[in-house]
């Protein structure tokens, strides 16, 4: 294994335990140790910048983390500036809005710095608990770029979405909550963002590493040079990982970086 130049970290259940709002003290220590070796620590998340947990925001500020793959690779940022972005077109958005209106489905636009919903609903509030605040602004897309939707449907309703013919080959839905799916471009993934960022920064993909736990990390693991799965990662990710470490509570990130000889 080559010493990585960039290490990408998923947030939920990797850097941070969402259910208990827990971020281990070993995480900032690991970030500092990486930076001391000239290795770039990066966030790679399905969340938008607007939806980063408070403890992750504190980590970013305290340790000066500068590279972000967000919204499943749809909006990426380095040193405060967009590096590679993939917004939806107004025509696509209006086509989906018409579909959702026919079915009575609620949704949230995901922008780079804000989330905006067509209305407020109990199902929406439950799904977004612990994710971040949103505003009610059905015409948000006319004024700000939108990178994906959060669509509030259950698995039975997802069948109707798939059968609608509106997704085609260009869009896909990825479930992240019993009541919600991410709806984004079929090419959208953390992998897409990582490829474009590494190209812009001149970093070979085989000199990158990633830590993750979930299904939206699968494409990322197929792209980076070395993948480390957390102790409670989904089986699909474990099958792709070159190494499996402990859980968040077991200081899995710090332990793996030490075991692999990346930090002392």
TrEMBL record:
Keywords: Hydrolase
Pfam families, per database record: Hydrolase_3
GO cellular component: cytosol
Gene3D superfamilies (alphabetical): 3.30.1240.10, HAD superfamily/HAD-like
InterPro entries the UniProt entry points to: Cof, HAD-like_sf, HAD_sf
A GO molecular-function annotation: magnesium ion binding
NCBIfam families cross-referenced by the UniProt entry: Cof-subfamily
Name listed for the protein in its UniProt record: Cof-like hydrolase
Source taxonomy: Bacteria, Pseudomonadati, Pseudomonadota, Gammaproteobacteria, Cardiobacteriales
């Amino acid at each position: 294994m080559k010493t990585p130049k960039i290490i990408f970290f998923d947030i939920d259940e990797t850097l941070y335990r969402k259910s208990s709002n827990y971020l281990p003290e070993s995480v900032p220590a690991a970030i500092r140790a990486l930076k001391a070796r000239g290795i770039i620590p990066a966030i790679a998340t399905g969340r938008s910048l607007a939806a980063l947990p408070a403890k992750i925001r504190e980590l970013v500020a305290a340790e000066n983390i500068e590279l972000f793959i967000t919204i499943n690779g749809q909006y990426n940022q380095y040193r405060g500036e967009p590096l590679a972005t993939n917004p939806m077109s107004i025509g696509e958005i209006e086509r989906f809005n018409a579909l959702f209106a026919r079915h009575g489905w609620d949704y949230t636009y995901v922008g780079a710095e804000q989330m905006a919903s067509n209305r407020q609903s109990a199902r929406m509030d439950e799904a977004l608990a612990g994710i971040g605040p949103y505003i009610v602004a059905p015409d948000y897309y006319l004024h700000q770029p939108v990178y994906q939707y959060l669509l509030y449907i259950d698995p039975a309703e997802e069948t109707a979405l798939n059968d609608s013919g509106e997704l085609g080959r260009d869009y896909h839905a990825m479930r992240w909550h019993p009541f919600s799916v991410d709806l984004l471009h079929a090419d959208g993934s953390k992998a897409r963002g990582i490829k474009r960022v590494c190209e812009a920064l001149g970093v070979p993909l085989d000199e990158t590493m990633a830590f993750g736990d979930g299904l939206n990390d699968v494409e990322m693991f197929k792209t980076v040079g070395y993948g480390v799965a957390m102790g409670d990662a989904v089986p699909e990710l474990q099958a792709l990982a070159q190494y499996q470490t402990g859980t968040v509570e077991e200081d899995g990130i710090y332990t793996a970086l030490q075991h692999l000889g990346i930090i002392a």
